[in-house]
Amino acid sequence: MAKSKAEQAFSATLVSGGLYKRNQGRLVRQLTALGLVAISIFGAYSLYNVLPLGMSAGMQKGIAVAVVVVSAWLSYRVVNFPRFADFLISVEAEIGKVTWATWDQLWRSTTVVIVIMFFLAFLLLAFDVLWQWFFRLINFLQI
């Protein structure tokens, strides 16, 4: 079977060493690659812990390191795959358009949320006590 253009492009990207649109979306691509590598490190650590006990420690470590190295290379290549890189570049551009709240607005909003949470907790407690009293009054609850 013949490979599609997308499959050919992806396999060609995996073996190349170049960067796609080097200066665009740099931060988000670096952080994405770092996140993927961190996930692979945790996965390799878990794999190291579940490999058969009959294996030598050197072989267990070698397999875990190989998984991390291959995952790191794949992470580097995936964030430079044109379609994914363009997506990450557009994500960074959209994040740059966001109007972030000031610290004062953040504190006020947080205070409102916490006060409402305590108010609702008190209200639910009051309803619970009221219904317990009512059900005991009509002898529905025997405690």
TrEMBL record:
One of its GO terms (cellular component) is plasma membrane. The keyword Membrane applies. It is found in: Membrane. Its main location: membrane. GO terms for molecular function: protein transmembrane transporter activity. Keywords: Cell membrane, Membrane, Protein transport, Translocation, Transmembrane, Transmembrane helix, Transport. Essential subunit of the Sec protein translocation channel SecYEG. Clamps together the 2 halves of SecY. May contact the channel plug during translocation. HAMAP family: SecE. This is Protein translocase subunit SecE. It comes from Gimesia algae.
